[in-house]
């Protein structure tokens, strides 16, 4: 099947509401959104603490976090597999080859991105925002909220970046999810499987969906950024 024929078949799959294809999309979005809902408050919170609180080992944590930005997702998957396998430390939880394991893996992948971006954004914020809040007698949570609002665009960019990294990663999902049809098969693992089988139509269809999701997330970020500035 040539490229034109495969693309035509992919569009027909999308328009026909193929249950298998949209089931894969549903698994992918469900896992990624759950992972982001967990990772966002954790990542921003840790980034805020690293930016505003001095404590022993802080510099080491920053260096480690920045180093993990480039960590291969397959290595994260390998470490998590060893922990969740039957002989692993958490083997008794029976989480391997489940969506929960995939969520955990994606949280671990997203955290360094969120922490590093939040840290950089808060350190680069206008110091007058914090000074004004302190001078007005604001509480610690109120000061934190004031700073986070000040750097909201940078934090939104961090969320978009982290979302793009986890929704398209394949190494960790494949290792801890197992690519089980109807259970843990997501968009990237399905694309790899279908391409290896020579079934390009579904792979192209899923690739189109993945591109549309990424475009939608970035368009939403650009829209809210523009509306806020107005």
From TrEMBL:
Specify the ABC transmembrane type-1 domain's residue ranges.
25-221
A biological-process GO annotation: transmembrane transport
* Entry annotated with the keyword Transmembrane helix: yes
**Keyword field contains Membrane:** yes
Transmembrane annotation, as ranges: 21-48, 60-84, 96-122, 203-224
* Bilayer topology annotation: Multi-pass membrane protein
The entry's cellular-component GO terms read: plasma membrane
* Keywords from the UniProt entry: Membrane, Transmembrane, Transmembrane helix
Q: Where in the cell is it found?
A: Cell membrane
CDD domains assigned to the protein according to its UniProt record, in alphabetical order = TM_PBP2 (cd06261)
Q: What is this protein called?
A: Binding-protein-dependent transport systems inner membrane component
